[in-house]
TrEMBL record:
Pfam families listed in its UniProt record: RF-1
Compositional bias segments (type: Basic residues): 110-141
This protein's encoding gene: arfB
Protein name: Alternative ribosome rescue aminoacyl-tRNA hydrolase ArfB
Keywords for the protein's UniProt record, in alphabetical order: Hydrolase
First-tier enzyme category under EC: hydrolase
Keyword Hydrolase attributed: yes
NCBIfam families: PRK09256.1 (NF006718)
Family: Belongs to the prokaryotic/mitochondrial release factor family.
Spans annotated as Disordered: 18-40, 99-141
EC number(s) from the headed UniProt entry: 3.1.1.29
């Protein structure tokens, strides 16, 4: 199953840069839950990777800084009973996380002023609402 992980058209992580660790899962498994190592921990060293271009690496390190431990991103998957399914889930999750971190930042917001008409409509709606609530009040004399 050793194949490269495609993140974007420009970024493909070679399988040699991914490390997998297997352990016993606490999730579903029936009789085999205590005997099979179905939990997968997928680790990827973002800091030392040659797959990510330098200009994009800084963006990834900044956006995923809270998830990195010594520059290494680790994803754990244990939701399936089969080790192969957990391996696929971990790879998909890693790809989605990196794809999101590699995305360019959104364009800066240009602040705009509220138009006079919009301001008047807003104030009119507030006055109307206030009048409705005023009518609900009974005279408490």
């Amino acid at each position: 199953m050793a194949e490269d992980l495609k993140i974007t058209d420009r970024v493909v992580i070679p399988d040699s840069e991914l490390r997998e660790r297997f352990s016993r899962s606490s999730g579903p498994g029936g009789q085999g839950v205590n005997t099979s190592d179905s939990r997968v921990e997928l680790s990827y060293d973002v800091e030392r990777s040659q797959a990510i271009p330098d200009e994009l690496r800084d963006r990834v390190l900044e956006r995923l800084g809270h998830r990195l431990t010594g520059g290494v991103l680790t994803i754990a998957a244990s939701e399936h009973r089969a080790q192969l399914a957990n391996r696929e889930a971990a790879r998909e999750r890693l790809a989605a996380l990196l794809r999101e971190a590699l995305a360019p930042p959104p364009p800066p917001r240009r602040p705009t002023k509220m138009s006079k008409g919009a301001k008047q409509r807003r104030l009119q709606a507030k006055k109307h609402r206030s009048a409705i609530k005023q009518l609900r009040r009974g005279s408490h004399d």
